Amino acid sequence: MAGAALVAHGGGPTAVLNASLLGVVEEAREHKQISALYGAKFGISGILEQNFVDLLQQSDETLLSAALTPSSALGTSRREVTEQDLDRVLAIFRAHGVRYFFYNGGNGTMGTAGQIQALARRKGQQLEVVGIPKTIDNDLLATDHAPGYPSAARFFALAARDIGADNLALPGQVEFLEVLGRNVGWLAAATSLARRDADDAPHLIYLPETPLPQEQLLDDVQRVFDRLGRCVVAVCEGQLDEHGEAFGADVRTGSRGSLAMNLGHRLARLITERLNIRARSEKPGLLGRVSSLCIADADWSEARLCGARAVAAAVAGHGGNMVTLRRDENSPEYRIDTALAPLEEVALRERHFPAEWRNAEGNGILPEFQNYVLPLVGEIAPLAQIQDIPVAKRSL
After folding, report:
1. Are 16 and 299 in contact (CB under 8 A)?
2. Which of 3, 163, 258, 303 is deepest in the core (most CB within 10 A)?
3. 96, 100, 101, 102 alpha-carbon torsion, rounded to 10°
4. Among residues 54, 85, 137, 166, which one is catalytic?
5. Which pairing describes strands 251-254 and 257-260: parallel, antiparallel, or unpaired?
6. At what angle do helices 149-169 and 368-377 cross, to 10 degrees?
7. Whole-angstrom distance, CA of residue 144 vs CA of residue 302
8. Distance, CA of 250 to CA of 219 (rounded, Å)
9. Which of 209, 175, 192 is nearest to 377 (CA)?
10. Is 137 annotated as catalytic?
11. In angstroms, what CA-CA distances link 119 with 11, 92, 144, 322, 387?
12. Cα 220 to chain centroid, rounded
């Protein structure tokens, strides 16, 4: 089936989203069935406005330079589509001769991709829709992990390590690191990579998969502080208490549900008010999502691979699927390949952090998780420390 192709980005950007775009362009150039390749500016909104750029006319230098930058070179969108929007998308595709559509995003984006594919089939319109996985939250089903997650995980692991060094150098304080992730704890769990010794930060890690009673938080922090005189807590932005509340934090309701806006700050105030311990919070926020300083090598190469495999799948007539990453569990070394999963299996569904990788107390991560995440993130080197070689005191 010959015709034009179009690629768009949906949802929040990542540090390696443009690597997937590079993979799409490189692979599209290899297939004579693809007569043109357009990029939609600002996601589904750009499609509806016919705001396209010609990607096959871009120079190799431009494409590679863009692929090495974070965020989205095309722009993205969180727009929720209506039935009228979907009809207009197909009409625009017909007008531009688009036969292949690559939608790069998370579970919400895959939901829209599935709707477009289903409507095209009902109308008898020739269109192959293939999803390209992308999310820092790592909550996509059917894939070992999602491009974007390893780099964000590396960022937060390094942040926990360095905040821990600050906490060690100036004791007497509790520090909260508020981690992205919304309803899942994959990123918060990655902060465990900062720990080499038992007393390294983060001392407590909380994931939103399990409610956190306020009294448990207070008891946990007090116990660590009594022993060390300091404490670092990593907590996911979506953490709720036993009543399903965000500990009194300000909550914003958006297209993806409710989310606390200042959870770490609220928890720090709670520690000061209830335990009379000095506390503060750090919220890297979007910096953790798109930091170019922490791009994981495997993440970039796998994002590029997923883009290329999406094109190959579409040309082969395998529309209605999302590209997945499949780990070879029988190999002693980390090996990854791709497969396909039906869009309806991943659309609007979340993969939570496994309970078997959490400690019984609900405030830490078990070592088995490192076997999964280290090949993705890369080594988190410990910080060097001055050796504790004491000097004898002298009489004055």
Report:
1. yes
2. 303
3. -140
4. 137
5. antiparallel
6. 110
7. 12
8. 24
9. 192
10. yes
11. 22, 14, 29, 17, 66
12. 28
Question: Model confidence over 166-221: pLDDT tens digits?
Answer: 999 999 999 999 999 999 999 999 999 999 999 999 999 999 999 999 999 999 99
Residue 283 tokens read as 């919220």
Residue 15 CA to residue 150 CA, distance in Å, equals 10
Q: Are 358 and 364 in contact (CB under 8 A)?
A: yes
Residue whose structure tokens are 């791009």: 295
Type of residue numbered 291: S
Cα separation, 361 vs 195, in Å, equals 18
Single pTM value for the model: 0.96
The identity of residue 17, as a single letter, is L
Cα 108–114–117 angle (5° rounding)?
145
Cis status, amide bond into 202, omega within 30 of 0? yes
Angle between helices 297-315 and 17-28 (to 10 degrees): 40
The answer to whether 363 touches 234, Cβ cutoff 8 Å, is: no
Report pLDDT for 255. 64
Three-class DSSP labels, the chain: CCEEEEEEECCCCCCCHHHHHHHHHHHHCCCCCEEEEEEECCHHHHHHCCCEEECCCCCHHHHHHHHCCCCCCCCCCCCCCCHHHHHHHHHHHHHHCEEEEEEEECHHHHHHHHHHHHHHHHHCCCCEEEEEECECCCCCCCCCCCCEHHHHHHHHHHHHHHHHHHHHHCCCCEEEEEECCCCCCHHHHHHHHHCCCCCCCCCEEECCCCCCCHHHHHHHHHHHHHHHCCEEEEEECCCCCCCCCCCCCCEEEECCEEEECCHHHHHHHHHHHHHCCCEEEECCCHHHHHCHHHCCHHHHHHHHHHHHHHHHHHHCCCCCEEEEEEECCCCCCCCEEEEEEEHHHHCCCCCCCCHHHECCCCCCECCHHHHHHHHHHCCCCCCCCCCCCCCCCCCC
pLDDT tens digits for 322-356?
Answer: 999 999 999 999 999 999 999 999 998 999 999 99
